[in-house]
Amino acid sequence: MLAAANAFGETTDGGVADGAADAVPAIVISALEAAARGEAFADDLHPETAKTGKPPSSVQQAFDVRHYALSVRIQPESRSIEGTLDLTFRAIEPLSAIELDLDPDLTVHAASMAGVAATFERNGDSFTVALPVQVDAGETRVVRVSYGGQPHIALAPPWHGGFVWSEVDGTPWFATAVQTEGCDLWWPCKDTYADKPEEGVEVAVSAPRGVMVASVGVLAGVTEGDDGFDTWRWVSRHPYTGYAIAINGGPYEVIEESYTGVNGTTYPVQFWALKKNVDKARKLVLSEVFDDLAFFERLLGPYPWGDEKVGFVETPHLGMEHQTINGYGEQYKRGKHGFDQLLHHELAHEWFGNVMTHRRPQDAWLHEGYGAYMQAVYAEELVGAMGYFDRMYEAYVSNEHCLPVVNPGVGDVGEAFDNRDIYTKGAWMLHTLRRYMGEQPFWGGTRRLLYDTREPWSLAYPIAPRYRTTEEFIRIMSEEAGEDLSWLVAAYLDEAGMPELQARRQDGQLKLAWKVPGDRPFPMPVTIRINGEEQRVAMGGAPVAVPLPDGASVILDPHSDILRDLPIIGDCAEQTDAQIQYNIDRFTRMAREYSWQR
Question: Which segments constitute the Peptidase M1 membrane alanine aminopeptidase domain (predicted)?
């Protein structure tokens, strides 16, 4: 997901969407203000439903999700849905019941297993199905659940998520965006990042005729109904995090091209654009998506889902990294560094988020730090060092340093995203690590993080996804560097503040010392430039003295290799306040542009 703050690049100033409201409702403004501050918004959403990625209950830990088959009927006029879920699960231990998460705003109508009705009981944001017979450990069964109602409406998507309802020239235009709240906002699921359906998903969406529906995987067919509704059936054999399963409907036209990836596989690239924007979308695919793919595949490895598709769909919100069908709402704006930064960011998440997924909420920086850093690396490739450091400077001055990036106290993904430093500081830690390790070890370690190999370019499909933690990241990078790098990562990610390089002239010497939050060890060497001559100074725990001629000019870290505390940003409160009004103004404009309806 793109950062809510102006942390990494420019924002959109596009035109107002057709039918946009003249004024934004007060409740939306309240949600926008909360999003700008990284705070929870006390609307009608159940407080537990608002949490995603939290530890599963003891009942949920007793079964493994193997497959989801979801059928949903969309009623735009009433903003309601009716759905059926077939959940295939394997018992880890003997089971007499299963538990799924679902927003209390949605009603469970019935449950069954193998055609035999099952009783169920609501438990706030979840419900328990009593199985008709006990399922022994190792056995696989299918439970069917029917449900319906009016799903929670997103107030400031994608930061405050749910269903997004809009229209274009009288035709419904809708989307789902639930990263920080979870899949249970609109369908029954096991709302945890740590149990993806190993055998894949099926999504069948019935929508009014004239509405085209884009979703995950491959389109298996469209069935015309006698009631004026058409059913679009999408199938994927890959595992998915619940929030990455999305549905999008509107008056679309599909642009499809073919791309041959680094491993020799030719796969489809689809862009589901509003009909009025099809020419812009075609240009975007041909001029940018192909170049983005070439960049990512060359640097990282094969696109993870080349046996299905690369997918983008125009959405009535800014965007989201939905696997194989990324939401796009940047309104076809090329950024100041020569590329569409939102499209690039969401595509980056196919690697950092979808094929490599953080195991715990506190490791969310693995998605967003890497996802944001890749735009700086791409700007460097396109326009050189000035583009790279322009983006990195924007990130630096957006650091809030209020909370540690890796915070064991974080209980769910929404809490992790309250800390926008997972983007900015995460990216800067990667920059510092790259400069310290060197190109080959850093990128080799990154590829191992994604694929378990330094040289993934010949991998055949399917490519297995994997879970990662910060500790695994440290282990891999340390192995690549040939030394323990836990001190470097911990100094940046386990503390809210940053190391400060203290320097003073005294008695013909330049005295240098690191002041590190938490008094952590930080033996980071420093390049200094004295009268135009550079030298690299080894640093340990004690201050270091360097001979200094009288009147010499001194530049510390002249190439900005190291993330360190500089007197150009304020403290936590100042940094937060400086961006609040900016974000409120930005989100208010977006609410008008996308014609959000409530």
Answer: 339-452
